[in-house]
Amino acid sequence: MGKTIQIILAAILLGNFASCEQKTGGAPKPEITVGIKASPSTLDPRVARDSYAVNILTLVFPGLFTIGDNLEPTPDLVEKFEQPDARTYVFHLRPGVKFAGGRELTTEDVKATLESLKAPDINSRFAEFVDHIDKIEILDRLSLRMELKEPFAPFLVGLSFGILPASVAKKSSLSTSELYGAGPYKIVKWVPGAEVELSRNPDYSGPAPYFEKIKFRIIPEDITLLMSLEKGEVQLAGSITPDELPRLKSNPRLLVRERQGINYSYMGFNLRDPVLSKPLVRKALAYAINRDEIINCLLKGTVVKADTLLSPQNWAFEPDVEKYDHDIEKAKTLLDQAGYPDPDGAGPLPRFRLSYKTSQDVQRLWIAQAIGYQFGKIGIDVEVRSLEWGTVFADIQAGNFQLYTLTWTGVIEPDQYYTIFHSQSLPPKGSNRGRYSNPEIDRLVTEARIVPDRAERRKLYSRVQKIVAQDLPYISLWYSKDYVVSDKRLAGFTPGMGGDWIGLAGARWQE
Description:
Layout: H1 3-15, H2 17-24, E1 31-36, H3 51-57, E2 65-67, E3 73-75, E4 78-85, E5 88-93, H4 107-116, H5 127-130, E6 133-140, E7 143-148, H6 155-158, H7 166-169, E8 185-191, E9 195-200, E10 213-218, H8 222-231, E11 236-237, H9 245-249, E12 254-269, H10 279-288, H11 291-298, E13 303-305, H12 328-337, E14 352-359, H13 362-376, E15 380-387, H14 389-398, E16 403-408, H15 416-421, H16 439-450, H17 454-471, E17 474-487, E18 490-491, E19 508-509
Parallel strand pairs: 1-10, 1-11, 14-15, 14-16
Antiparallel strand pairs: 2-3, 4-5, 5-7, 6-7, 8-9, 9-10, 11-17, 12-16, 12-17, 13-17, 18-19
C-alpha cells in the first residue's frame, strides 16, 4: 500500500475514532461479524471445495471424525469404534446427537450421506474416497459396519466430512433451508457475494455456544476490510495483508493471533503445454523465482519457505528433497539446454511468452506480478491475468491455463499426493489439474494407501516427495503462518488448523 493511501486511511480512521469507541464500548451483544475475502461457491458440504466454504461449514456439519491440532483423526460423531480386520470397521455413534430441528442423528443418516457422495449428478470431491467402501451394513440405529474393498490407511482421516439428514442427502441440489446439520450452528441466510449468517442450533448436543449469531461478511477489498476492523463493524478476520499487520498489532482495541500453519502455496503447470511439458523449463522457472525476496519484501515474513507439499509438522515430511534456491544464471543455462536461447541477448525480445492466471485478490495479484517480473529477468515474457475467483478455478479445473498459483489448505493426510498427482486423478474426480503422469508415482501413492504400518508409509512418501521435487509438476513456494485479527475482547478463540472457524463455537466476549 502506498504512503498516500495510508495517510488518507489514517485520516479517515482518526475521523471515525469517536464513533468507533461508542461502537466497541459497553457490553456487546452475543453476536460476532467475521470478514472473509470471497463468497463460498456452495454451502453443501458434499461438494464444497473452496476454503471459504469449508472453513464455515465446520460450524454446521460435524463428521464422524475431526482432525485435531496434532493432525490426527479424533472421534466426533463417533463414540467408539473397532477394527476387526484390515478391511472392516464397526462404528458406534454418540447417542443424543440431534440435527437442527430436533431429530436424532442415526446410522441411516450416515449411510445415506455416504451413498450420496457417489452420485454422478452431485459430483462430490469425496466420490473417490467412498469408492473404497464395498459395503455399509446398519447394525442398529447407532451402530454400523463398513467393509472396504481393500485396506485403506487414510480411512479414518477421510471420515471428517459433514453428515446430512437422510431425507436431505437423497437430493442432488439443496436449498438454503435444507442445509442443516448437527453442529453448534445452523445456516439461516446466504446471500452469495454478500454474507452468510449462522444462528445458534438450539438442538446441539454439545455445550451451547455463547454467540447467538455469527455473520460472515464478504469483503474482497483489503482497505475496506481494514477499515471495518478499525471501526468495529467487523470483529474478526483472517487473510490480512502483511503491510497492515504492524498497524493492527499497535491498535489497542485489536488482537492479532498467529500460529504456524499447514496451508501450502505453489505454482502449477499445464504439463500438456509444449513448453511447460519440458522438465528443464520448469526447473529454470523454479530457479528464477526469488522466494526470499518475495517472502521478506512483499509478504513481510508472514510465510515460511516450502520445498514439499507436507509441512514439517506432518509425520511424513521429508526434508531431504531437491531444492531450488534462486539462481538466475543457472535458470538461463537450463533454458538454453531446453532449446530456448535468448534471441537477442540482453535485448527486449523474449525467449517465449507465458500466461499466468490468478484471482483478483490484491495479495495474489502482487505475488503474480512479482514472479512475472522475476521471470522477465531470464527472458520470459509473462502476461498476468487477474480474474474473478470462480472463473480462475473453473479454468484451472478444465486445464485452460499455462501457469497459476494456488494454496492447498489444511494439508493433513499425505494421501493427498494420490489426489493431486496420480495419473488417473484428473478433475473433477481428482485434483491432478496439471495432468501430471509418472508410473512410479502412481505405484508409490497406491501402495502407500494399503500399507497399514506408518513407518512403511513414511518411507513410501519420502520417495514420493523426492521424485515430485525432481519432476516439478509444482513449484513449492511457502507454508502459511495463520493470522487472525479480532476485537481484543474475544476470549477463548483459537484459530483452526488450516483456517477453519470451529473455534468460534467455544469463544465469547469478555469485558
